[in-house]
């Protein structure tokens, strides 16, 4: 996916890792200070009562923006909390930031959340980093240069049989969509090996990269949810489908999909036959 005219992606991966690591330390510190006592947690509603904005989201994104302003002042930034202004111009690098992916896990004391920092140029991924604050694991990739977990190369699953596959998915905050997603899962459950729902899309995509799960699908994700993780999965050899692609593949325009190369076609066929585009 990298153009010959794109800049060297490796320095962007290095900087994404550096900034995401610093934000991860802050995320844990804020959780101890604010979210540890949920009776006084600083929570405001987002799209529904389930989707909360925490002090951790805001402080971590502010830190990432500050560091990028120091190191890459001419770049654009798209963040879950702060948005982007103005839109990137042609040839301008854009950083896509999820300060805390897995917010509900974060506020409930669960370990499955991350800081995700992606880098793109004219819509093409250059680099990305996903850091897990609790475990300290660092997932990263640079376009054309592979994907790594704590510096070790990653490779997606070689499994080719959906009936044996462990498939990750997510459920939307919106109750109506969540109900449709649950119904879809019920239709495919007997045709796959097992299902996992971590509540953190970036880590689901990284799990595909590592071969820990064989495939992943979800509708309704935002760019900051998948920017870094999708590149990590792709650079590990997975077949990746990002939202916004043409709808004639039968998965729907809002679908995020990733699977090992041998599983991708049969898993996509299974999802289409179950009506995945309708969720």
Automatic annotation (TrEMBL):
Region listing for Disordered, in residue ranges: 71-92
EC number per UniProt: 3.1.3.25
Residue ranges of coiled coil: none
Family annotation (Pfam families): Inositol_P (PF00459)
An example molecular function term from Gene Ontology annotations: hydrolase activity
EC category: hydrolase
Cofactor: Mg(2+)
InterPro entries membership: IMPase, Inositol_monoP_metal-BS, Inositol_monophosphatase-like
Reactions mediated catalytically: a myo-inositol phosphate + H2O = myo-inositol + phosphate
PROSITE patterns: IMP_1
Keywords noted in UniProt: Hydrolase, Magnesium, Metal-binding
Family in the record: Belongs to the inositol monophosphatase superfamily.
Protein's recorded name: Inositol-1-monophosphatase
Species of origin: Actinomycetospora atypica
């Amino acid at each position: 996916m990298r153009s010959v005219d794109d800049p060297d992606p490796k320095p962007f991966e290095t900087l994404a890792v550096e900034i995401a690591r610093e934000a991860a330390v802050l995320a844990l510190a804020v959780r101890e200070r604010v979210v540890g006592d949920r009776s006084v947690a600083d929570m405001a509603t987002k799209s529904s009562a389930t989707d909360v904005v925490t002090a951790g989201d805001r402080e971590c994104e502010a830190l990432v923006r500050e560091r990028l302003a120091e190191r890459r002042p001419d770049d654009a930034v798209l963040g879950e909390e702060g948005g982007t202004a103005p839109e990137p111009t042609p040839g301008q690098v854009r950083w896509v930031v999820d300060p805390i992916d897995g917010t509900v896990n974060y506020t409930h004391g669960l370990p499955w959340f991350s800081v995700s920092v992606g880098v793109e140029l004219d819509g093409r991924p250059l680099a990305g980093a996903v850091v897990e604050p609790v475990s300290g694991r660092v997932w990263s990739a640079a376009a054309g240069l592979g994907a790594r977990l704590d510096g070790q190369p990653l490779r997606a699953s070689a499994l080719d049989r959906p009936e044996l596959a462990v498939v990750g998915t997510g459920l939307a905050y919106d109750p109506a969509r969540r109900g449709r997603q649950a119904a879809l899962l019920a239709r495919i459950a007997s045709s796959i090996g097992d299902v996992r729902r971590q509540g953190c899309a970036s880590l689901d995509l990284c799990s595909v990269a590592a071969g820990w799960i064989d495939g992943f699908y979800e509708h309704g994700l935002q760019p900051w949810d998948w920017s870094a993780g999708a590149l990590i999965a792709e650079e590990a050899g997975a077949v990746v489908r990002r939202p916004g692609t043409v709808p004639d593949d039968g998965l729907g325009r809002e679908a995020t999909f990733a699977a090992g190369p041998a599983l991708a076609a049969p898993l996509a066929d299974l999802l289409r036959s179950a009506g995945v585009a309708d969720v």
